[in-house]
Design a protein that fits this description.
This protein is of the alpha+beta class and 180 residues long. The chain contains three helices and eight strands. It folds into two domains: 38 residues, no CATH class; 130 residues. It has an eight-stranded antiparallel sheet with strand order 1-2-3-4-8-7-6-5. It comes from Amycolatopsis umgeniensis.
């Protein structure tokens, strides 16, 4: 069915093919819009990426002892937060729990700049903490142990993680005088 002059297919056949292509593209678009998105595994199920921060004592025996004693799960506002694998390269002496906004512990940090003789400290289960409020989170620094440790919790978390971590710290690291 070629045009006798040029060898090209007849015009009606070209028009029909173009119309079919347009209809096919429109059908795919409508199907994609009406079908909805497939549920995607949230990134929170994979390894937890943590930004490296200076932690000069993260390789200390105190941090190794603390990290080894931390539980596999924490309870926060009635929810169980499971310990997560950290994405490589993982900062040394760091642990994360939960999906979405995780609870993160880092051991071996430098003295928090907010710590001074007039800082308001809270004692939780025999451990002294300095709270530093962030945007949507609070970071609690352990200030009375041989190594500074930070526990960052989302504002939606209850007090469970702080209490559990306080118990582990009190049982594994001796109290020391505050260092300003």
């Amino acid at each position: 069915m070629a045009d006798t002059d040029t060898g090209a297919p007849p015009k009606p056949l070209l028009i029909a093919a173009a119309c079919l292509a347009v209809l096919l593209a429109a059908g795919v678009a409508v199907f994609g819009l009406t079908r909805g998105a497939d549920p995607v595994t949230p990134a929170a199920d994979g390894p937890l990426p943590l930004v490296p921060i200076p932690a000069f004592q993260s390789g200390s025996p105190d941090c190794a002892k603390l990290i080894g004693a931390l539980p596999h799960e924490l309870t926060s506002s009635g929810n169980t937060l499971v310990r997560r694998k950290l994405a490589e390269p993982a900062p040394e002496a760091s642990v994360g729990w939960g999906t979405g906004e995780p609870v993160v512990l880092r051991c071996g940090l430098g003295k928090p700049p907010e710590l001074n003789p007039t800082s308001q400290l809270r004692t939780i289960n025999k451990v002294q903490w300095l709270q530093v409020q962030g945007e949507g989170t609070a970071t609690w620094f352990v200030v009375d142990r041989p190594v500074y440790t930070a526990l960052t919790v989302p504002d939606t978390a209850g007090t469970g993680p702080l209490q559990t971590v306080s118990d582990v710290i009190a049982a594994n690291l001796p109290a020391v005088p505050l260092r300003f």
